[in-house]
Design brief:
Length: 209
Amino acid sequence: MAYRETEKMRQRKAEARQRIIECTWACVSEGGFRSARITRIAALAGVATGTIYRHFESREDLFAEIFRLATQREVDKVAEALTVGESTVQRLENALRQFATRALKGPMKAWALIAEPVDPKVEEERLVYRKAYASLFEQAIQDGIAEGCLPDQDARLTSTCLVGAISESLVGPLSPTQTKTPPGHENNDNDLVETIVCFCIRGLTGTRS
């Protein structure tokens, strides 16, 4: 008789897989992908290292899955922000501010997703999600052109420029080697966010809304 996996076994496997994912993200959140070692992940998840490889073909596959899940949450937050505001310009401001603010509140997480040197499989996912952000901005820009609050422009190219500008402007501040904010300068992050938003909106409109 062929072996048939029981529902209980499937549930146990699913739970183990979820623990592996959660513990991997916890490691990445603390020190980036570089610090997420399989032995540590296994110990935190309460499984053998071999169990991890039964769920994921390789370390790179595990990291790519973590990247997909984490970045999709951020893309969803930007999409949500693009629904708030009376005009397209306001909605774009909200989305840009959301992107930058969330990144600066969780700098190690954001560094891992935006700029940390990673394996090729994870880099492929990074490119996919940069396109996802750009697609959201592209649709918003097209809406703004239709509304008449944005000048006519190549929405696809402009959206790519937005993603590049905001990502590049955050690389330095998010870097683990960046000097910590000195006491009394806690508002630096707010200034950075507003500078990014101002720059991007000026690029879209030619003025600050």
